[in-house]
Amino acid sequence: xxxxxxxxxxxxxxxxxxxxxxxxxxxxxxxxxxxxxxxxxxxxxxxxxxxxxxxxxxxxxxxxxxxxxxxxxxxxxxxxxxxxxxxxxxxxxxxxxxxxxxxxxxxxxxxxxxxxxxxxxxxxxxxxxxxxxxxxxxxxxxxxxxxxxxxxxxxxxxxxxxxxxxxxxxxxxxxxxxxxxxxxxxxxxxxxxxxxxxxxxxxxxxxxxxxxxxxxxxxxxxxxxxxxxxxxxxxxxxxxxxxxxxxxxxxxxxxxxxxxxxxxxxxxxxxxxxxxxxxxxxxxxxxxxxxxxxxxxxxxxxxxxxxxxxxxxxxxxxxxxxxxxxxxxxxxxxxxxxxxxxxxxxxxxxxxxxxxxxxxxxxxxxxxxxxxxxxxxxxxxxxxxxxxxxxxxxxxxxx
Length: 399
What we know:
Layout: E1 13-17, E2 21-23, E3 31-32, E4 36-40, E5 43-48, E6 60-63, E7 68-71, E8 73-78, E9 85-86, E10 91-92, H1 94-99, E11 103-108, H2 121-137, E12 144-146, H3 158-166, H4 183-195, E13 201-202, H5 217-223, E14 227-228, H6 240-249, E15 253-257, H7 262-274, E16 281-284, H8 297-308, H9 313-319, H10 322-328, E17 343-347, H11 357-362, E18 368-374, E19 377-380, E20 394-397
């Protein structure tokens, strides 16, 4: 199993130079003018031209060799269990494998695959607190896993949410995967969660696993969760008219997942763009699931939405980075001073017909990943999962 990745033991300074393209993760300005990033002690301290920033005293220097630097990708919807193992597929090292797909942060939508998952109130609270604590301590491959997302049950009262929040729980698992499947009960409990700073997500569409059920537009709109989980179904999507009704009827996050209906994902994307609400669209995989695990799932979503959804690639990457970071209140996902120094360095895949990485993605190809960095520390170099990149970065100083 992938174990806790090493952290910096002293003052650190990372310099990434010779950047060919700098993607910010922000829809309002997706491409930055700069060829150098400096990060000190895991946080971005400067962005700009090499001649204009202070690179003295670097403990690690990366020559990007003209490749693209983007914020580390964020998977807004995963179902972790214990460490880097999933009983759903009896697979180990799946989180570390996602790192090789450029994912540096994951958000749990509920630890629903835990064998013998308790459904009584005491048990579900204990499991959520355990998961939050465990993944706060464990960083498989360095990946940040925000876990501890209880699946709510009808017997819960307001004090249960207050207790969870006091213990450090900040997320709810998908509403609808437990006993709460009706709008009024969901809205009451989502309100309690919000009162104590816990963010909520709802299952949307047909049932996905035993115990889940249909959650239609009426329940989604009445529950008023912070994120409309897999609005394109996980796997079975709602009809188009219900998806449009959700998009128009609330101003919450619209989550598109790899393990969903691709046609419905494209419909949601078009609807959000027509409404001027592209900032509401975020991406996840909804894995591990019956479809397995998808180390390249977020990259595949970026490529699919760009190529089939006619979305410029630099904007598509924002859906997997800055949009999610802002909605989930994370300190990563955007390349700006003060944010976590989490990056993915990539280039167009070898032999892609695109002239550059953006054109290749908009043609439907996946980029090749040459390096991932989390908290200013190089975690991987050439990806074992993506196609080989045309150009790759290299470490000049450090290791």
